Amino acid sequence: MGKKPKTKLESPFLRSQARVEMASLMDVMFLVLVFFVYAVSEMAVHRGVKVSLPDAAGSREPGERIVVTIAADDSLSLDGAPMPREALVAAAARKAAANPGAPVLLSADARASLGAGIELLAALKAAGVDKASFQTSGRAGGGAGR
Asked: What is the pLDDT of residue 55?
């Protein structure tokens, strides 16, 4: 005999389970991660002391360096931290002893007095720092016309 008529309509949507598409969710999360990494790197505070280096030819020192900065007003700082000369010389000598072969670079502003640089260099040599030199801009002969 014939088929019995269905009393209830069945929908194929009722049998399927709900699911979350992970591929698009992962793409969105990756883009959010990239945005935050880029934003954080742009917001990083660079705590350097601005100096106008004198023009002179020089070679680039490879590896790690210890940077002593002499600002235009003859104030001193070691790796961006301001300190008096005696404390700076002692700290630079400790760092140089801890990192053998690491040069101590004197990054002196062109407007700083020559005497402050020479006195600091002599104090560093007396404290046992073997490798100390002045940092320059790397451009030879550019400062005569300024």
From this structure: 59
Angle at 54 between CA 146 and CA 139, to 5 degrees: 85
The dihedral of CA 25, 28, 34, 39: what is its sign? Answer: negative
- pLDDT tier at 2 (50, 70, 90 boundaries)? low
Q: 109: closest CA among 56, 61, 66, 69?
A: 69
Q: Taking 90 as the threshold, does the pLDDT of residue 107 lie above it?
A: no
Rounded to whole angstroms, how far apart are CA atoms 22 and 14? 22
Q: In what order do the strands lie in the sheet with 132-134?
A: 81-82, 76-78, 66-70, 104-108, 132-134
Same domain, 39 and 52: no
* CB proximity list for 132: less than 8 A, separation 6 or greater: 103, 104, 105, 106, 121, 124, 125
Q: How many domains does the chain have?
A: 2
Work out the burial of residue 58: count CB atoms within 10 Å of its CB; fewer than 13 is exposed, 13-18 middle, 19 or more buried.
middle
Q: Which of 12-16, 17-21, 40-44, 74-78 has the lowest mean pLDDT?
A: 12-16
Residue showing tokens 């300190």: 83
pLDDT at position 92? 87
Could you list the residue range(s) of the whole structural domain that residue 34 is in?
18-43
